[in-house]
Fold this sequence. Notes:
single chain; mainly beta; five-stranded antiparallel β-sheet
Amino acid sequence: MKLRVDQQADALYLRLDESSIVDSVEVAPGVILDYNEAEEVIGIEMQNLSSRSSDLKLSALQFETA
Length: 66
């Protein structure tokens, strides 16, 4: 799993695995899901991050596991 934050593009991308992307669907404004051949979600992109939260601090990302 990979998480990429592009501050210049104001976007965040979470890649769940490395299988090939065969389709992408915008499920909400600025939220795009990437699907593989088995129709599984393998990537999630969020655009316009700075407009989604007034307290957004990309340098302070926190990772939690249960």
